[in-house]
């Protein structure tokens, strides 16, 4: 969660490791590249983490004060997944247009830096993370990187407050690509956060597997088997609280 939180900080403070408690909680991190404009292209950074011996890719979420950032969220009509970047996808795979466009504006630089960083540090794991809009971009990144880097590199993804990103064919592609031990994908939902219930499932949108849910009242974290589990975020349609979107992450 600290890496996702850092993506909301000014990138110069992330690079200098002066972004406050989130940076203080992750010593031994060297930032290798940053990008984005904090608007139509959310900020992102790539770093080496000594503690986990991995390369970290983190994406900023929506900025409610920035119109261009909000337009990424509102460009909600589904469009075909870019088969140049996702050659393993079929034409049946549809994703949120705004999220895909935001992803495409950063993917070339991330593709350039991540393989060289893996070689430079001699590591074989990539951690990808983000919150909200950043969570959606992070999952697109992960599916793309898993194919690009091949089976010798472990791509693990932990995201927070994930909106629905695509149709059932997309969810199946994510499940097939980010499968494995530990697990390879965790998307965490907090209590009555409305974001995981948007866009609505009834309109053809579907979450992948991998949900962990923070229960109201007890704050227990529970595993949610399957792609959409009525006992987790899916069951919150009549009780929503936007404040829950911001954590306790």
From TrEMBL:
User: Which part of the chain is the Fungal lipase-type domain?
Assistant: 56-201
Identify a single GO molecular function assigned to this protein. hydrolase activity
Q: Cite the entry's keywords alphabetically.
A: Disulfide bond, Hydrolase
CDD domains attached here?
Answer: Lipase_3
This protein's record includes keyword NADP? no
Reaction catalysis annotation: a monoacylglycerol + H2O = glycerol + a fatty acid + H(+); a diacylglycerol + H2O = a monoacylglycerol + a fatty acid + H(+)
Protein's UniProt keywords contain Disulfide bond: yes
List GO BP terms, alphabetically.
Answer: lipid metabolic process
Q: Which InterPro entries match?
A: AB_hydrolase_fold, Fungal_lipase-type, Sec_MonoDiacylglyc_Lipase
Family recorded in the similarity comment? Belongs to the AB hydrolase superfamily. Lipase family. Class 3 subfamily.
Protein name listed in UniProt: Alpha/beta-hydrolase
State the organism named in the record.
Answer: Calocera viscosa (strain TUFC12733)
| Taxon lineage | Eukaryota, Fungi, Dikarya, Basidiomycota, Agaricomycotina
């Amino acid at each position: 969660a600290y890496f996702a939180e850092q993506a909301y900080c000014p990138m110069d403070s992330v690079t200098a490791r002066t972004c406050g408690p989130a940076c203080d909680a992750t010593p031994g991190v060297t930032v290798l590249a940053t990008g984005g404009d904090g608007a139509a292209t959310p900020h992102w950074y790539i770093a080496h983490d000594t503690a986990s011996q991995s390369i970290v890719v983190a994406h900023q979420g929506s900025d409610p004060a920035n119109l261009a950032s909000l337009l990424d969220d509102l460009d909600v009509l589904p469009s075909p997944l870019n088969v140049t970047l996702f050659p393993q996808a079929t034409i049946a795979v549809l994703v949120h247009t705004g999220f895909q466009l935001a992803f495409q504006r950063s993917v070339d630089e991330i593709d350039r830096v991540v393989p060289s960083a893996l070689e430079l540090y001699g590591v074989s794991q990539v951690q990808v993370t983000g919150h909200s809009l950043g969570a959606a971009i992070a999952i697109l990144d992960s599916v793309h990187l898993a194919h690009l880097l091949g089976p010798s590199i472990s791509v693990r993804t932990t995201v927070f407050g994930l909106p629905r990103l695509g149709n059932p064919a997309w969810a199946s592609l994510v499940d097939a690509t980010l499968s494995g031990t530990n697990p390879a994908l965790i998307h965490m939902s907090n209590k009555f956060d409305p974001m995981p219930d948007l866009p609505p499932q009834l309109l053809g949108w579907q979450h992948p597997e991998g949900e962990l849910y923070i229960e109201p009242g007890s704050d227990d974290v529970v595993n949610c088997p399957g792609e959409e589990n009525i006992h987790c975020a899916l069951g919150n349609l009549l009780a929503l609280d936007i404040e829950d979107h911001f954590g306790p992450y």
